[in-house]
Amino acid sequence: IQSETLEKIKHTNDMKELQQIRVAILGKKGSLTSVLRGMGKLSKEERPVVGEIANAVRETITAAIDDKNKKLEQVALEAQLEKEAIDVTLPGRPVQIGGPHLLTKIVEEIEDLFIGMGFEVREGPEVETDYYNFEALNLPKDHPARDMQDSFYITNELLLRTHTSPVQARTMRSLDGNQPVKMICPGKVYRRDTDDATHSHQFTQIEGLLVDKNVRMSDLKGILDNFAKKMFGNDREIRLRPSFFPFTEPSVEMDISCKVCGGKGCSVCKKTGWIEILGAGMVHPKVLEMAGYNPKEYTGFAFGMGPERIAMLKYGVDDIRQFYTNDIRFLKQYHNA
Ligand code: FA5
């Protein structure tokens, strides 16, 4: 047994095989184990002689297995170290540096501009009640102007807000009807619009609201003019067109001349030379009243703009879908803008 086993141990290079050898000889049913078990059948004289030999064989084999095991472990460790060696001379992988999304930057820029004019920044829920999205803004359930904004309804009374104007009503309601308001509210809005170069079913708006005693249309015009000049520079033209919103009276829309074509007409401005960027007007007396303000004492103006369109104008982006398709090549262009 001894010479045969030592030979096997010598020739194996595998830890599993070594373990098998150990089991075959020294295991419960191993050949040496059965010799030792069979000792009882031997005569008194034979027992110590065979016992001594068997023990010596066991010790020799155990030592040989342990020794081989250590050697195999050493070989395995060396192989692993070699495999995992780090080549410090290899060049490192370039780190991709991220940056804020162009839209985030524009919204922050607009916020800073209005904060500079004394406005505070507020927020409101994206899942809105029918009441705040429409009714509190003078759009009762059967009002035809509701058709102007096809909406994503969740239940009969809950919908994804179609504009940031409900935050006007929420802000006024949160006060006691006797405090001036000067706030802007940026946020996401949702409409069942068909996506094209200038329309997206989800986009951003920034609402503005100023309520105080003696607020006039000329105040609105002054603020909008200041905003447009700071945002686009003195060389860009703006125009106010009369418009209609149920929550403002009178209402206007502000257009700005198209930078891409210089006012001549292109696909961005649908060949008109102008792009509509915001709606505005004097807060309707009914809206003030529903929010707890006395319209004889308080007046106000409000506006709502689309920062995507503003970014498109400022940076000559020709498709609104670029903001939402996450093409890293597009986004990277504006990291240092
Ligand atoms: C409104 O949403 C009014 N709540 C704005 C308002 C506020 C008027 C306060 C008066 C007082 P309108 O639907 O026109 O208005 O949208 C306002 C702006 O959002 C538009 O000028 C445009 O810049 C942007 N906008 C509208 N629809 C889309 C769209 N589908 N994709 C991208 N931008 C859009």
TrEMBL record:
<protein>
    <recommendedName>
        <fullName>Phenylalanine--tRNA ligase alpha subunit</fullName>
        <ecNumber>6.1.1.20</ecNumber>
    </recommendedName>
</protein>
<keyword id="KW-0479">Metal-binding</keyword>
<dbReference type="InterPro" id="IPR010978">
    <property type="entry name" value="tRNA-bd_arm"/>
</dbReference>
<feature type="domain" description="Aminoacyl-transfer RNA synthetases class-II family profile">
    <location>
        <begin position="102"/>
        <end position="313"/>
    </location>
</feature>
<keyword id="KW-0547">Nucleotide-binding</keyword>
<dbReference type="InterPro" id="IPR006195">
    <property type="entry name" value="aa-tRNA-synth_II"/>
</dbReference>
<keyword id="KW-0436">Ligase</keyword>
<dbReference type="GO" id="GO:0004826">
    <property type="term" value="F:phenylalanine-tRNA ligase activity"/>
</dbReference>
<comment type="subunit">
    <text>Tetramer of two alpha and two beta subunits.</text>
</comment>
<keyword id="KW-0648">Protein biosynthesis</keyword>
<dbReference type="InterPro" id="IPR002319">
    <property type="entry name" value="Phenylalanyl-tRNA_Synthase"/>
</dbReference>
<comment type="similarity">
    <text>Belongs to the class-II aminoacyl-tRNA synthetase family. Phe-tRNA synthetase alpha subunit type 1 subfamily.</text>
</comment>
<dbReference type="Pfam" id="PF02912">
    <property type="entry name" value="Phe_tRNA-synt_N"/>
</dbReference>
<keyword id="KW-0963">Cytoplasm</keyword>
<keyword id="KW-0460">Magnesium</keyword>
<dbReference type="Pfam" id="PF01409">
    <property type="entry name" value="tRNA-synt_2d"/>
</dbReference>
<dbReference type="InterPro" id="IPR045864">
    <property type="entry name" value="aa-tRNA-synth_II/BPL/LPL"/>
</dbReference>
<dbReference type="InterPro" id="IPR022911">
    <property type="entry name" value="Phe_tRNA_ligase_alpha1_bac"/>
</dbReference>
<keyword id="KW-0030">Aminoacyl-tRNA synthetase</keyword>
<keyword id="KW-0067">ATP-binding</keyword>
<feature type="binding site">
    <location>
        <position position="249"/>
    </location>
    <ligand>
        <name>Mg(2+)</name>
    </ligand>
</feature>
<dbReference type="InterPro" id="IPR004188">
    <property type="entry name" value="Phe-tRNA_ligase_II_N"/>
</dbReference>
<dbReference type="InterPro" id="IPR004529">
    <property type="entry name" value="Phe-tRNA-synth_IIc_asu"/>
</dbReference>
